[in-house]
Amino acid sequence: MIDHLQQGILLEEAQRFQEALAAYALASQEEPGNPDPLLRQGALLDEVGDYPNALLAFDKALSLDPYNAYALSARGDVLSTLGRFDAAIEDFSDSILIDPEDANAYYNRGLAYASLDQNEKAIADFATAVQLDPMHGGAYNNMGLAHFKTGAYAEALGDFSNAIRVRQGFACSFTHRARVFEALGEVNEAIDDYTRALQISPHDPTTLFFRGALYLRLQENKKAREDFELLLQTAPADNQFRALAKQKLESGQ
To answer: Which of 27, 152, 185, 230 is deepest in the core (most CB within 10 A)?
Structure first.
């Protein structure tokens, strides 16, 4: 079993995913009472986007070891991806009972709560995640989004600033903070943050749209047109902001 498990790990590292899955399956056959090959199999199936079979692998692993915190959290991730947020929350909660120091379990449960618009519960989980891991940029960022949704703008500004501090190079936190500045009427700060986001990710359609819309509101029509035109040149065909940018260009408002 160990030989096939190690072989699967090496194949996975070489991105030979189907061969790795076959090796994990052999390891599981050789030691059917051991959940480790199933956990490896489930994680890889999740990574390649085969969510139904990933779920089956984690179900089998948990039938062998019902109190495996990793398996519960990993299955919760798959359930969230499938939009089964209530079931995911149950798995994350069970995982937290077993391992209350796992910052990612709180973070992922927070994401599930946020997907259900249960923002206060999401904020509480994100806050616990950053207490356990003060460098968890994703938790700060998503706590900011939840605070923004509830109108707690001062808290959201602090969250996004923390996300920027601990997670350099992620444009979205600048864009999110710009949206808060814009909501507060601090338009110069908003433009600065949109611009910083675009320095990191020059073709991000969300940032281009919102900066263009703000430029248009400020009657800086040339700059607005440049943002909208760049968005239309570079955004994927199915991006939600394409039609909005085209409408802004045509109407000039």
So the answer is: 27
